Amino acid sequence: MRFLVIALLLFSLCPPLHAQKAKKKANPTNSDDMWVTSPVPELPANVTHHTFTSASMKREVGYCLYLPPGYEKHTQRRYPVIYHLHGAGGNETRSVYSASVLHEGILAGKLPEMIMVFPNGGRTTMYQDSGDGRFMAETMMIKELIPHIDATCRTLADRQARCIEGFSMGGRGSTHLAMRFPELFASLFNQSGNVYHVSDVSKAPNSYLGSDPERLKANDPYRNLEKNLAYIQANLRIQVACGTADPDHLITVREYHEALTQASMPHSYFEVEGLDHNQKKMIDGRKASWFDFHLESLRLNHIDLHYLKP
């Protein structure tokens, strides 16, 4: 009798093996259920959570939106936008700390008012469309989310007032998008994001993008740098950064920096001595100047930032 009681207790505490397997299968990498964060955690001041319908994926996709303190008061103003892309395994709420830094600078009168958008780009999409068409992270960003933000917010809906950045996978994704679609952005800030030769299948197959050589070439940031070099040199400003204690990312970040240098592409590059793969530490070490590169890009494009005060 005692054995039967113990056996029943163990069975109640440990679900059957098929149930455990089903639970694991329900949440694979880049699963269908990851495109809207729920529940939404507490967000910083002036940051709100939203969703929109992605026609390419036929589902809702989440994003967080930072609106500056003067947005409701100054109803005739339009604002530049920074798109910030999260890292692998993250979601639209992962990197909103940078909105806190922006908000703090605006309230202190040190930064102009800007909008920030934090999209959900999937867990490991690298902000690219999958080869099987199941996950359309690039299409969602370029053809759906950016037009959606321009249609629903008072943005300066122009390349000259649109910046893109990201950390880790977000740095890789923002680099991919800026090299492939440089006509959409004024500046790029890659924060510790690997930049791979995607089309070089000798190093590793790309199960996400598939095996089509032309598709791999079209998604290779080095090939797109070469293809679009004249336009990039004339119109896109690039900043790249990484920590010296981040070996998994530093190698390809340095390679991308060298490729830009060899292509005679002016850019800003810095390494943070002793920094590991930690975005908050990277930001906190240079809060006062964190947005300076984007601001300089906007000024060079004749965006009147003095007008954008709270």
What is the helix tally? 11
In total, the number of domains comes to: 1
Strand order across the largest sheet: 1-2-4-3-5-6-7-8
* C-alpha geometry: globular
Write the CATH fold name: Rossmann fold
CATH class: Alpha Beta
- Mean pLDDT rating: 91
* Backbone structural class: alpha/beta
Number of strands: 8
The run of helices and strands is HHEEEHEHEHEHHHEHEHH
Q: Which architecture does the CATH hierarchy give at level 2?
A: 3-Layer(aba) Sandwich
Any idea what the radius of gyration is?
A: 21 Å
Q: Report the CATH superfamily.
A: Alpha/Beta hydrolase fold, catalytic domain
End-to-end span in angstroms? Answer: 74 Å
Q: Characterize the main sheet.
A: 8 strands, mixed
Low-confidence stretches: 1-28
Sum up the structure in keywords.
alpha/beta, 8 strands, 310 residues, single chain, 36% helix
Topology at a glance:
Blueprint: H1 2-13, H2 17-25, E1 47-54, E2 59-66, E3 81-85, H3 97-107, E4 115-119, H4 137-152, E5 162-167, H5 169-180, E6 187-191, H6 213-218, H7 221-227, H8 229-235, E7 237-243, H9 247-262, E8 268-272, H10 279-284, H11 292-300
Parallel strand pairs: 3-4, 3-5, 5-6, 6-7, 7-8
Antiparallel strand pairs: 1-2, 2-4
Helix pairs in contact: 5-7
